[in-house]
Fold each of these.
Amino acid sequence: MDDLFSLKKAFLEEIGSVDDLAGLQLVRTKYSGKKGLIRARLRDLSSIPPDKRPLYGSTLNDIKNFIEETIRNRELIFKTREKEQRLETEKLDITLPGNFTPFGRRHPVNQILSEIKDIFVSMGFSIEDGPEVENDYYNFEALNIPKDHPARDMQDTFYISDDIVLRTHTSPVQVRVMEKRDPPLKIISPGKVYRCDSDVSHTAMFHQVEGLMVDTGISFSDLKGVLELFIHSLFGADTPVRFRPSYFPFTEPSAEIDIGCIFCSGSGCGVCKTTGWIEILGAGLVNPKVFEMVGYNTSEYSGFAFGMGVERITMLRYSIDDIRLLYENDARFLNQF
Ligand code: PHE
C-alpha cells in the first residue's frame, strides 16, 4: 500500500511541475500508458497476498481513476490556454487601414482625344489608322511636298533613312485611304506624330487628328460648317471662330482656324499674345495635285482636309501652360483631370 501512496505522491509532484501539453503527454505515458506504472501494478496484482488484494486492487483503481481524471483536467486547461494564446496572436485589428490600390484614370490627352473622336463619329466620320514609321512618299511627296520643296522646313523631321521617316503629321493616312477606296470618303485619323522640336509648347512626340471628306460638290462652306460645329461642341456654343488665310502644300485654298481666346475672352492676354485669338487647326480644300497622285478624277470630286494638335487643344481646355507637364507623369498633376 505504501507503494501506491508514494506512486500517487510522485504523480502529484510531477503533474504539479508540468506546464504544457507536451509535458503532460510525458506524464500520461509514464503513469497511464500501456507500459506505464499503473499497468505494471495491475499486471502484478497476482503477486499481492490474496487477503490484501481487494483493498490493494480498489485503491489502485481509485489512484488510476484519479490520475486519469487529473490528466484530463489539466489537458483541458492547457488546451483552452493554448487556444486563447493563439487567438491573441492571430487577432485581426479591423481598424488598421487596408492596402490601398489607387484608381488609375485616363490621361488628359486621351480624354480629349476621345471627345474629339466622339464629335466626328457623331457627324458620320469613320476612324482610320496608319503607320507611325512612314515612307517619305506618303508623308511628303504624295501630299505635294517634293524633296526640294521649302515646305519641308515647316516640319523638323526625324529621318530613319533617306526614304523612311517618323511621320510628322497624320496626313499620310488620307493618302493611304484614298489609294484604297473611292469617294465618298469621310474619315478622321488620330495618332502620334513626331517632330524634332522641344519647348513649352512643343514635344518631340505629340498627337494629331487629321480629317478628310471627299465627295461630289464639296466646298469651303462644308469645311466651315463641320469645323464650326466641331469647335462649338468642344469649347462651347458661343466660342468665336475665325478662318485666316494660310498655306499648306496639300490644300488650296488653305486656312488656319482660330478661336476667341478662352483666357481673356478676346480682350488680349499673354496666352493669345494680345491678339484675342488662338490658333487651333490647319485646314483647306484638298489640292487637286493630291487627288491626281491617288488617281481621283478632279473634275468630279472635291474635298476638304483639316488637322489639329491634340495636346494643344488639351492645354486650352484645361488651362495648362507647359506641354511638358503632360508627359512628366507626375500623378499629382495628372490626377487633377
Ligand atoms: N498636316 C498639317 C500639319 O501637320 C495640318 C493640316 C492637315 C493642314 C490637313 C491642312 C489640312 O501641320
Note: Residues 169, 171, 210, 248, 251, 282-284, 305-307 surround phenylalanine (CB under 6 Å).
Amino acid sequence: MTDGTPRRPVVTGLRVGRRRDVAVAAVPDPSVSWTVEAEPGWVGARAVVRLDGVEERELGPHGVLERWPFAPLAPGSEHRLDVRVDGVDGTASEWSPPLRFVTRFLDAPWSEPFLAHPAPTREAGPFVLRRVVTVPADLVSATLWSTSHGVHQVSINGVDVDDHVLKPGWTSYRDRLTVTGTEVGALLTPGAEDVVTVRVAGGWFTERYGFGETARRHYGEQPAVSLRLELRCADGRMVRVGGDGAWLVDPAPALVQSGLYAGETWDLRLEVDGRGDGSEPWLAAAVHPFPADVQVQAADVEPVRVVDERAPVAVWPNPDGTGTIIDFGQNLVGRLRLRLDAPAGTEVILRHAELLQDGELYTRSLRAASATDRFVADGRGPRWVEPEFTFHGFRYAEVRGVPESVGADDVRAVVLQSALRRTGWFSSSDPTLDRLHENVVWSVRGNTLAIPTDCPQRDERLGWTGDAQVFSAAAASLFDVDACFASWLDDLALEQRAAGGVVPTVVPNPLGSFSEVAAAGWGDAVTMVPDVLRDRYGDLAVVRRHAASMLAWVEACAERADPSGLWERGFQYGDWLDPTVSRPDKARTDPGLVATAFHVHSARLAGAALEEAGDHRGAERARALAEQTSRAFRDAYLTPAGRLMSDTPTAYALVLAFDLAPVGRRTVLAERLAALLRAGGHHLATGFLGTPFVLDALLDHGQERAAERLLFQTACPSWLYPVTQGATTVWERPDAIRPDGSVHPSGMVSLNHCAFGAVADVLHRRIGGLAPAAPGYRRILVRPWFPEALRHASVVHETPFGHAEVAWERVPDGVTVCATIPTGSSAEVRLPDRPVFDIGSGTHRWTVLLPPAERPVALGVDDDLARLIDHRGVGALVSAVLREAEPALAEEFDAYIRWVPGRTLRAELAAVAAPPEVVARIDEGLSSLAVPPR
Ligand code: BGC
C-alpha cells in the first residue's frame, strides 16, 4: 500500500464439503473451507461464517475443512454462505463473495425398485429404458436421482443430463450404492410429454473377476438401474416419477454387448428411431424391489469425465495390410472416437494395447481382457462413434474393417479419469527426471478412475489396497484426491467389517475370500491412506471416521502375530515385485520382518487416530501394541552392531522410515543401506513396500550421494530406465521391458502401475523441498535437496491454504532458493549453510553457500554437453559402444554420467578408465551425430 496502511485481507475459494467442482452439500453438515489472501506474514485471529445472510458463527481462522457450525441443513434447500476474517494485527476482511450452494442428499431411505431387462437374451446384456413423462405445466424445478447395478446415463428428449461417464462409479455393492442427483428442470418442457431414456450396461457390476479359470461374475448376472424424477411445481406439490412398470425396454438396442475388460459391440443399424426397424414392440421393464440392507448415499466424489482428447502422433498400415496402427504417443486410459463412413453392415474392429512387438499390438499382457470394440456401420454417411460404457489402457490402437484407410484426422483418444483437480507440479533441469514425473502424473491419471486401482488395462483394474497405500502420497502431491480416496475408504471400512476386521486386499472386494487375507502393506491402507489425507488436506474427519477400523485391523494383525508381537505366520505378499528377483512374490526381504514393521507403524497411526477421535482407551490399546511389537521387532531383527537379520535395502528403508531402531543406531543402519545399494550398482532393489521409503531413509541420515546415484540411475532396473526406453507411464516392474526389448516373462508387465511412481512425492518433498509439516500444510517444511545432477528445480503446490512454491537454482557459489508460503501457513526452513529458522507467509529468497564438494564439478560450457547428452542421445550412444566393447564399464558409465553431468565426456570416460580404442569409437560416433568430439 502506498499510504503505509496494510492491505485488507481478502477471503477467496469458499466451499462446502471436499469437492471444488460443484457448490453442493451432499450431507446435512458439510465442512466449510476458504483461503485468505493477505499481506506477507498476516496471521488470522478468527473467522465469522454467516448462513443465509442472518445466522453468524465464529470459527478459528484456518478455513480448512472446518466443522459445520450451524444446525443441519434440510435436503433440497438453497443457501448462501459468507465468511470474513480478522487478523491478529487488527486488520479485517470484507465479507467474502457469497457462496451460493444447494443441498443434495436424500430425505428418506432410498427404496426405488431396480428396473431391468424382463427377458435378457445375452449375458450381462446392456439395455435401454424409455418412458414418456407428462411434465406439469407449473413446473418450477426438477431433480433426477439415479443409481445402478452397473453403469448408466439418462437423457431427456435426447440430451444427456450431465457429462458424467460410467456413472455412478464403483462401490461395495453389497453394502453401499451412491445416487447421483442432477438438476434437470432446464431439460423439461412444462406442460409437454417429454421422453426420458436410460442407457444401462453392466460395468463393474457384471464384470467377471478372478484369475484364469476362477473368473466369474461376482455381483450379479444382469445390470439394473434405480431412479426417481422429482418434479416441483409452483403450488408446492411434488410429482415423483419412480421405478414402475411404465418403463419400457428396447427389444433390440444398438449397444449389443458391453464389458469393461471385453469392450463393446454396437450395431449402429439398430439406432434407427432408437428402436430397430420398429417391428418389435418395446417390453415392460422388470421391476425388482430395492434390497433393504444396502445403504444409499448421495454421491460425494468427482465423477469420471472426459479430461483430455488426443490426436495420433503417427498412423500407418499394420504388418499384414488389413488395418491401421495408430500411435497416440502417450499411454493413457480411455477409448477411441472414430470417424466412420462405411456401407451398412460393415464391421469395424478397434483393438488396443500399451505396446507394439514386431509391429503388432502386444496384447498378452492384457490377459483375459480382449479390449476390443466393434461397430457395425449403418451406412448413413460419416459420423463419429465412440464406445460408451467401457475403457481401455493403451498407447496404440489398431482399426480394421474400415473401407478407406484411417487418417490422423479420423481418430482421437478420449482420456477418462475421475475429474480431479490438478494441485502439484514439478520441474527441473533434467528432462529425463521431468519425464519420470510426467509419467507418474499419467499413471495416477489412469489409476484414479472412480476408485484407486492397480492398473487400467488388463483383467484386474481392482482397488488393490496395497497399491493405494503405496501411491496415495504421490497421488496427493499431484491431484486433489481427498474426496475420491475418502469415498473409497468408506467402502474399505464396509468390506473390512464383512471380513471380520481383516482389510481385504482389494476394495471393493469382488474376489471374496481370496482377498480376505491379512497382508501387510495392503491392509495397512486403513491407517496409512487416512494419514495421507490428514497431512495433505487437513482431513481430520476422515481420520476420526476410520479410527475404529484402524484398531480392528491392528487387532487382526495382533491375532496373527506370536505372543511377543512378531507377525511371521500366514500368507504375505511381502515386498512385492522386488526388482532383483523374477518372481513377484519371492522378494528377498523377510516377509515376517516386513509384516512386523508395518504392524508397528499401523498401531502407532491407529493410536494417534483414536486419540483424535476421543477414544482414549482404544488409543492406549493401540499404543501398547505398538510398543510391545516394536520391542519384539528390535529383539528379533536388529543386531547390536546395527545390522538387520534381513540384510536388504527394503528392510533398512522400513526400519529407518518407521522409526524402529534406537536413535544411536540409525546412522550405522543408513550406512549399511547405502553400502547395499552401492554393492548392487545403485539399481532399484526395493519392491512395492520399500520403494516409497528408500530415498527418505537415505536423505534423512546423511546418505545424499547414495540417494542421488539411486535416483539418477538410468540402467535397468531403475526409476529412469523406463524413461530411457520411451516409457510414458510408470511400469509395474521397472524391467517390464528389458534392455534387449523383450517383455519380462513374469506376467507382471502392466505399463501403467503407480507403485514405483511413489517417487514423485519424493521429488516434491525432497528435491523441491516442499513438504507438509502439520495437517493440510498449515505448517510447511522447506528443505530442498540439491542433487549434483541438477542445476535447478521447482515445485508448485496448491495447498488447502493456497499457493505454495519452492524453486532453486545454482549460482557460482551455491544455490538461490525462493519459497512462497500461503497466507495462514508458516514454514520451518532447513538449508545446509545455516541453523533452522521459521518464516511466515509471503515470498522469501535466500542464497545458500554450498561447500565446494557439493557444487557441481563444472558449470558453463560443459552444461551444453550435459544437455546434448540428455537431448541427443550422446550418452546412449556412448553407453551402447561401451556395452558392446566393455560391458562392465557400460554399467559404471551409465551410473556415472547420470550423476555428474557437468563433467566433460573425456573426463567421464577417464573416470571409468575407458580404453583408448573405445574412446576412438565414441569420437567417431559423436562426429556422425555432428557433436564436436571432446
Ligand atoms: C496387482 C498388484 C497387486 C498385486 C497383489 C497384482 O496382480 O496388479 O498391483 O497389488 O496383484 O500382490
Note: The chain has 19 helices and 45 strands.
